[in-house]
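During the second half of the funding period, the structural biology subgroup turned its attention to how the target accommodates small molecules. The most pressing case was beta-D-glucopyranose, which had performed well in the primary screen but for which no bound structure existed. We therefore specified the complex as follows and requested a full 3D prediction, including the ligand pose.
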Amino acid sequence: MKGQEYKEAFARRISERAEKISPTVEIDPVLPDFGDKKTTEEKVDWIASQLTIEEKIDFLSGVDMMAIRGNERLNLPRVWCSDASSGVRCFGPGTSFPALLALTATWNRETIRTVGEAIADECRAIGVSVLLGPGVNIYRIPNCGRNFEYMGEDPYLTGEMVVPYIDGVQSRGVAATVKHFACNNSDYDRHRMNAVVDERTLREIYLPAFKKAVQKGKVMALMSSYNPVNGTYASENGYLLNDILKKEWGFTGAVMSDWVSTYSTQGPVKGGLDLEMPNGMFLNRKTLQPLLEDGTVTEADIDEHVRRTLRLVIETGAYDKAALDTTKRPQPGNHRELARKAGAESIVLLKNKKNILPFDGDTIKRIVVIGPNSLATPTGGGGSSYVHAVDPVGIYDGLKTALDGSIEVGFVEMDTSAVATGEVNLGTLTEDKKAALREADAVVVCAGYNHVIESECYDRSWTLPEGQAELIGTAARLNPNTVVLVNAGGGFETESRLSEVAALVHVFYLGAESGNAVADVLTGAVNPSGKLPFTIAKRWEDHPASKNFPKDPDATSERLSNGPEVRRKGLEWSPEQLRNIPSEQWDIPYEEGLFVGYRHFDTRSVTPQFPFGFGLSYTTFALTNPKVSVETVGANDGLEVTVTVNNSGRREGAEVVQVYVADLESSLPRPEKELKGFAKVFLQAGGEKEVTVSLDPEAFRYYDPDKKAWTAEPGTFEIFVGSSSRDVLSAGTVELK
Ligand code: BGC
């Protein structure tokens, strides 16, 4: 229980922390007088020229847990930050939206953009100028406690979905912060796990989404990660921050550290970190003066960092107008409606035997809901992204409201201690309760994880919490119409019970409107169109990363309860405590290289339980006549792929057309095929549309570590079009000249 106690204490601490901080934002602040300075660079120059060296040093670190410092002398206000991707966590109630992984499962760029806009409006409504999200770390193993905060296993999908999210946020005068740069692919021991990853894998798998966020999304801020990458802490990793991010990609914004992820003074200043968060533990007047005196650090070094932070703030507009804009407060219902719509669009229907779903009132008169996530359905995973949902709607309530008058909805209560642990005590399933399950026309089991057991700061188990698989099996034996809903931030063990259940639905974490969103899909008000942004394996060992991963990821919290995380109680940490953290690094070799997710399963012919890109609908789609626009391409050409999509079923719905590229001959090993384009298409029953997906020249390239460059190697490429990585048609081949 030690681990569980730790997890519960952590969840409490995180929410207290969010409540304790209150921003000092004014409706009508006195702002700096920029005179005739108009452009960002002119304003940056002017402020930098006014600041003393001491004041500049102050600008290297944050203050009050969530703010970028101000300067009274120059009337520069403090600028407030808040977590993050699924809503505004700090400073009072915000709308709890679906988790980023769920939004990615929509494969709908417009949906994710709209959510980004809404979250940014909520930021402005309370005076927050910097949103501390989105997170784009690749889903390398299902155990990572933060997968739900990220966007799945594919760098292309992540990059394509993060750009509209950033656009949405930044279009409203709020900076987005892409995080955690880089290779924070597990929270097992994030201060010490040294990601040992080769150059090509870094470039092809772990960095592309960051690159797109910078170059296409024009993201204003970036957060470094806790962990070392190839032996150097991310917050002082000059190769990542200076060479790649700033020089090669041309990032002009500010790099902030993750909260308490700095480990020295000289390292970050020289290594490319601009802002130490949440406060100046290592970057302060006392530590920097001697380094300035002996020349290890120069004023020019400091100027460079300060200028970037100033640029970030100026671009949000926070020095020109009040960050607080009360007109942006969500109107009753509007963001809830959006959360519900996006939530329903995220849901992935994995199995639907004999079309048990949507529930048909002609044959189903009474359903019974059971399981730990029925009433207090978890709205989000845990940690810094957790938004306290106001009036959250659980699944039982959502179904009851939706089915009112048509189908009776009952509830079978079990041991309620299950709420925090997710564990189920089957002993409490008495004979009369079993009878209720047996006699119902269908049973809905609400299973899965929650914000205590699936959270930042530790990893989670591959198997569902204790007793849940047994509960699912028992329900399925008692009632053949058993529908299982699972809240999870990724894949989980399904093999043991899958054949027994009638339906399986992945419901992620869907925010305050969870119950309504789920009800919309179960009743058929919304036809599911979500597609997995990750592969669900049959066995944990099928994940290539499992070979170099702690065998018992769940033990993480046991270790932490005796370890450094727990020593950092309260809001401030002393440097002495911090110095204890990185006592020793240990290597986590990314030996599988490029072969992450479907790149592994498809190349090595390992059959997944559910492939990447998979998701069922209540209608059926036929993809025919796939074609490529040209037979040959040059190294800098793209091409168009077309396919006819027909809704061959009896109701309207949406299909995601996925385009994969396979390099048939290459000097270096490449994955069998890789996602390089997609489009979501909505069709009425019987409707048909020719869908065109453009591939850009990058679709054919790989990173050649010898040349230190992306290379388009001449040869034959085959283009596939389909509805999952395992359900594709050839659209033909093209010769790259
Ligand atoms: C998390 C970040 C978050 C920060 C501020 C850290 O613990 O890793 O993702 O933005 O806290 O709350």
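Two results from this model are relevant to the next phase. Residues 54 and 285 are 6 Å apart (CA to CA). The two ends are 62 Å apart (CA to CA).
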